[in-house]
Amino acid sequence: MSTLADVLEARTAEAAPELIEPISNGRIRCYACGHQCPIPEGATGVCKVRFVRGGRLHVPWGYVGGVQCDPIEKKPFFHAHPGALAYSFGMLGCDLHCSYCQNWVTSQALRDPSAVSPPVDATPHALVADARRLGARVLVSTYNEPLITAEWAVAIFREARAAGLMTGFVSNGNGTERVLDYIRPWIDLYKVDLKSFDDRHYRQLGGRIEPILATIRRLHEMGVWLEIVTLLIPGFNDAPSELERLTAFVASVSPHIPWHVTAFHKDYRMSDPDNTTPDMLMNAAEIARRAGLRYVYAGNIPGRVGDLENTRCHHCSALLIERYGYLVRQYRIAADGTCPDCGTAIPGRWSRTFAGQITASPFLPGTRRLRTI
Ligand code: SF4
After folding, report:
1. Mean pLDDT computed over 217-237
2. CA atoms within 13 A on the CB side of 292
3. Which atom of ligand 1 is nearest to the CA of 46?
């Protein structure tokens, strides 16, 4: 019987030349993520899904680990085409191993034997056609870490752009200059999960903080629309001093970057911390405001975080978008992306008009038709 590793090995392509470099002793360095693994013949990288065989770096290709239709607010993007449907796909594997991962069934495949998620064969054309049929405006690579499967995302995004759709990554941000340059022509939106502002915490999760901070700076310089999320985990990353440093860093890149602080629920192997309370989110949001951030949101506890689900003009405080969870209840941004009351430009990627929401809750499109290539 084939193992999951066998199944995935049969679904690979050669790495993009931009993302590799031959180094000494026949090894190949991979630049798809911040680990920059020097991979010898017959070995895999830290992510377990990129491997060297026959002198070539093989990378995931031709399947999805899952597909879901989400309101764009779930990604979360609050300043990018509110109400749009985001056709979301992922592959398998991750370069980190966070013990609280909410997508562990796909992200920890090949690392954790209990993470079992059979891949479904797919083509870029079939995925984009499915997204269009469902009325999606954005294709988003998510659920596993998209940087480690960047070649497949770019293949899909080329097709998506040709069909007039936008594209995005939901990522841990553990990137390199090379991979960001590689995806740059094909990506509109990027969410970085900034998990902590302490390198020791990042090392517990299997990474380092510096590549993540560099990715945030570079995405902003590149002009990709960027929003940042921090999952607030009691006892792990909620110390006021850490939140002060984290939010001051984001504000130093730009005070206009939306920062979402979201509530932890016990998941996967991290079941010791208590769930995050609304008060904890509101205290973190207050720290972010003091740091100078102008668009601060609290997530995962709808209706219990006061005004922190809504968008207000940073100049005159007028209510611009009223939300409950992922539901957009009221939309007042002018066609030119300004506040209708004071005329201030609101940072983001806005549609000329709000076309309503196809859904305010995720749904599965069904993936059977993707099997036929
Ligand atoms: S994607 Fe990252 S973890 Fe995987 S092989 Fe490349 S550098 Fe290593």
Report:
1. 97
2. 11
3. 3
- CA–chain centroid gap for 249, Å, is 19
Mean pLDDT over residues 174-186, rounded? Answer: 98
Which band of pLDDT confidence, cut at 50, 70 and 90, is reported for residue 369?
low
Question: Would you give the distance in Å from CA 266 to the centre of its chain?
Answer: 20
Ligand 1 neighbour 150 (Cβ under 6 A): no
Distance 145 CA to ligand 1 centre (A): 11
Retrieve residue 213's tokens. Answer: 């901070």
Cβ of 33 less than 6 Å from ligand 1: yes
- Are 174 and 215 within 8 A, CB to CB? yes
Q: Whose CA is nearest to atom 7 of ligand 1?
A: 36
Q: Is 159 within 8 Å of 180 (Cβ atoms)?
A: no
Residue 44 has pLDDT above 90, yes or no: yes
Cα distance between residue 31 and residue 33, in whole Å: 5
Determine phi and psi for 74, rounding to 5 degrees: -80, -20
Nearest Cα residue to 112 out of 4, 2, 37:
4
Average pLDDT, the chain: 93
Q: Could you tell me if the CB of 50 is within 6 A of ligand 1?
A: yes
Pairing of strands 327-331, 66-71: unpaired
Which of 364, 372, 371 shows the shortest CA–CA distance to 120? 371
* Residue pair 316/341 in contact by the 8 Å Cβ criterion: yes
Distance CA 170, CA 142 (A): 5
Q: Give SS3 for 337.
A: coil
The residue whose CB lies within 8 Å of the most ligand 1 atoms, and thus the one to mutate among 37, 94, 169, 177, is 37
For residue 341, with 0-12 CB atoms within 10 Å meaning exposed, 13-18 middle and 19 or more buried, which class applies? middle
| The predicted structure's pLDDT at residue 112 | 67
Contact 115, 104 (CB under 8 A): yes
> Read out DSSP for 140-169?
EE-SS-GGGGHHHHHHHHHHHHHTT-EEEE
pTM metric for this prediction: 0.95
- pLDDT (0 to 100) of residue 372: 36
Amino acid letter, 6? D
Contact 45 CB / ligand 1 (< 6 Å): yes
